């Protein structure tokens, strides 16, 4: 049967070409992986060397490093936690779906570090602050001196990235003694985007209230650090009193309630933790800055 023979021959030819094509694609993929891995090693080596320098935080060009990291992660199976990709884990953290975690997953340390020291973190923070400033511009202010905006300190007005770069970007258990020693140095840099919002509020007559979970004995070093970084003119700097045993939500809610009871209107509230912004009274509008390095409940 010539027709049947012709079909068989054509089928064999197609399978042969398909097999050849698959082999070529496999070789190409292997070569691309080798090249990408070499480039990634060079890029990551420079990044790791930069963030390892004491007291410095280096900016890394996401456009160069990120595509390599993100291209290799799904292929090589790195950067995941219990079957979850690290970018998905970070989204879960920021959306308040992943809660009560103690440390960044060990396999995500590099991912979180790259996010924090690269341009991505700054871009995400800018989006939040742009929205906050647009909200401020929309307000009809009474101008009676009773309108306030609540700010957190750590990873909100000040950045502790120089500390966390030396401690696994949150992948190692938090050591309160070491962190408080760092806080007492008063050397934390400002978060530029938050500072932009802070200055905007001062210009329109909204009074900043700085509310932090830091212990009262860190008041002097915290105030000095804030002033060194260009923050001034706040109405209150509120720290946790000695002996307080409640949660962060309970502490901050209590302090905000005192403001409200005194006749102040909380027109805005910004922080890096959900515990900064949830809990009544939370303010007329809340803004959550990114922070995948630690969780405070």
TrEMBL record:
The keyword Signal applies. GO terms for molecular function: acid phosphatase activity. Keywords: Glycoprotein, Signal. Coiled coil: none annotated. InterPro entries: Acid_phosphat_B-like, Acid_phosphatase_pln, APS1/VSP, HAD-like_sf, HAD_sf. Belongs to the APS1/VSP family. This is Stem 28 kDa glycoprotein. It comes from Triticum urartu (Red wild einkorn). The lineage of its organism: Eukaryota, Viridiplantae, Streptophyta, Embryophyta, Tracheophyta.
């Amino acid at each position: 049967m010539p027709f049947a023979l012709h079909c068989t021959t054509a089928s064999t030819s197609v399978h042969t070409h398909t097999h050849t094509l698959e082999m070529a694609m496999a070789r190409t993929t292997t070569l691309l992986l080798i090249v990408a891995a070499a480039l990634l090693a060079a890029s990551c080596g420079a990044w790791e060397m930069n963030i390892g320098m004491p007291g410095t935080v280096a900016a890394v060009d996401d456009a160069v490093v990120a595509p390599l990291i993100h291209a290799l992660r799904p292929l090589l199976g790195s950067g995941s936690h219990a079957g979850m990709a690290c970018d998905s884990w970070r989204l879960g953290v920021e959306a308040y779906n992943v809660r009560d975690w103690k440390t960044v997953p060990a396999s995500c340390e590099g991912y979180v570090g790259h996010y924090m020291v690269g341009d991505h973190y700054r871009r995400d923070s800018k989006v939040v602050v742009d929205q906050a400033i647009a909200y401020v511009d929309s307000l009809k202010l009474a101008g009676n001196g009773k309108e306030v905006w609540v700010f957190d300190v750590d990873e909100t007005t000040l950045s502790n990235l120089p500390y966390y770069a030396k401690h696994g970007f949150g992948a190692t258990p938090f050591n309160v003694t070491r962190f408080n020693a760092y806080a007492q140095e008063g050397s934390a840099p400002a978060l530029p985007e938050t500072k932009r919002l802070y200055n905007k509020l001062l210009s329109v007559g909204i009074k900043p209230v700085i509310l932090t979970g830091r212990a009262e004995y860190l008041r002097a070093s915290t105030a000095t650090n804030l002033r060194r970084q260009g923050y001034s003119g706040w109405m209150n700097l509120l720290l946790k009193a000695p002996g307080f045993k409640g949660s962060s939500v309970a502490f901050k809610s209590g302090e905000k309630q005192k403001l409200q009871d005194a006749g102040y209107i909380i027109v805005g509230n910004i922080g890096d933790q959900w515990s900064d912004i949830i809990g009544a009274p939370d303010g007329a509008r809340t803004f959550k800055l990114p922070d995948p390095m630690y969780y405070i409940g």
